[in-house]
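Re-run with default settings, no changes from the original entry. Doing this only to confirm the output is reproducible before filing.
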Amino acid sequence: MIDPANLHGKRIAMIAWAEKADGSDDVSVFAGTGNWDGKEFVLVREPSTSSLVLEPEWLERMKLVPDNLKDTLLGAEYQFSVSVGNIKDADNPEDLIKTGLKWPTEEAG
């Protein structure tokens, strides 16, 4: 696992994977700057209301971004992936982590 202190101030991309209604993959990238205060790690985004505290298991998945993917991952130096789902499809909605992030729409490009 990468020491969170080494991620402080670095650009980080969260790659969120979902499933479309037709069963195909849907993916979105959310990027921000890492902020480690010694206790929790925050992905700082603009506006600040879209910042989120990263779960310890997410930090365990952190990897360097290969040079050929930096543009795709919004200039990030590090990345990790998460799976997302619809709350109505969850076996136990209380097990889901609310991020407050908004999934981009097709119209947004």
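The chain has two helices and six strands. The helical segments are 4-7, 56-60.
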